[in-house]
UniProtKB/TrEMBL annotation, chains A, B:
The keyword Transcription regulation applies. The lineage of its organism: Bacteria, Bacillati, Actinomycetota, Actinomycetes, Propionibacteriales. This is TetR family transcriptional regulator. Residues 7-67 form the HTH tetR-type domain. PROSITE patterns: HTH_TETR_2 (PS50977).
Length: 186, 186
DNA sequence: CGCGTAAGAGACGTCACGTCTCTAAGGAGA
DNA sequence: TCTCCTTAGAGACGTGACGTCTCTTACGCG
């Protein structure tokens, strides 16, 4: 019997967790079920992660890169913001609300850094827009900068169904753009 | 031994659940602990609520009335919106994030109605403001109407500490009022 | 005054948790 | 090539809470 080790084994574990998550959802995912799917023992999991939440978070990170490394650059402010929000929507509707809520409940110390990340992304987008002259200034209150991503996150968390794209465009056109003094033409 | 019944007993149960929630938090609250505190058996709880989440929600409703029944009327748009947001903040910082997240995770069908409720509250406030002439029109996109309360809810859920009042005022002054075309004087 | 509903109490089976223990694989070093 | 040491693979184990069931007994209703 080939015995897996190190990084190879770890990848198998994370894949097993991801598969379990996609197939049965967070509530059904147990350390036992992941171990069984990976054809190993629970101890192998507990050696690496302290609990279910950490395992699942690691598996999410393993499975998909971060939005931060993939900031859209469409050439227009509107396009960029839509791109970011759409990425968030896609990312999380894949998971479903029960995973999100479960994780929140079990991982009290889920990086606050994760949330502030989006602030940086939005700041970059706004800066570019200002340089292009689309808007007057990149000097925008933080609360405005984070409004679209926060509202998006709110939708994701509280709507029990995938976020419709009409909501995404409304967030951009009726909330964000007006706030940064972007006058709509068309 | 006096045997409690009906509404009297129910109140005792809800109070016990609330006390347990305040004292130990949602994670520590078990059907057993509530039953013990109320000096009764688990069956009495299960006869009324299907699970922990339903019990806790009932206990929250029992303990504090709804914001809807208490819409602020300060005479100014700004004051009214601040009032609503502050009520939300107070309400939920009392509970703590673990209760919120726990409930979300365990009560998948937590009334969507609960969220849309706030839309009505905000609509009423805006309507009054329009009638007073503070703003040009009460015809505001839903996404704008719900922006402040949704952002507030977002803060409550994701900040692990009480929401500072500076955030509350920023939401009103930098996001909501500009969106409804309220020009700040001072 | 007798009946029926539900309170009070707790036993019970189940499930997943997280810990522990044991055997054996297979890489590193001599 | 042999030995040692880490750790994979497997599963037993104790614990805690769940939600169900059962039993006795209080008490409101007719």
């Amino acid at each position: 019997m080939e015995r897996r080790r190190g990084a190879e084994l770890e990848a198998v574990l994370l894949d097993a967790a991801w598969a379990e998550l996609m197939e049965s959802g967070y509530a059904q995912l147990t350390m036992e079920s992941v171990a069984a799917r990976a054809q190993t023992g629970k101890q192998v999991l507990y050696r690496r992660w302290r609990n279910r939440a950490e395992l699942v978070i690691a598996s999410m990170r393993h499975h998909a890169g971060s939005i931060v490394e993939n900031v859209p650059d469409t050439g227009s402010l509107r396009g960029d913001v839509l791109g970011v929000l759409q990425q968030m929507a896609d990312r999380f509707t894949q998971l479903g609300p029960d995973t999100i809520h479960g994780l929140m409940a079990e991982a009290p110390d889920l990086d606050p850094e994760v949330y502030s990340r989006m602030t940086g992304v939005m700041a970059a987008i706004v800066k570019r827009a200002a340089e292009r002259g689309e808007i007057a200034t990149a000097d925008v209150p933080v609360v405005v900068l984070t409004a679209p991503t926060n509202l998006m996150r709110h939708e994701i968390f509280f709507s029990h169904s995938p976020v419709p794209s009409s909501t995404v465009t409304a967030l951009v056109d009726d909330v964000f753009l007006p706030l940064v003094g972007f006058s709509r033409e068309t």
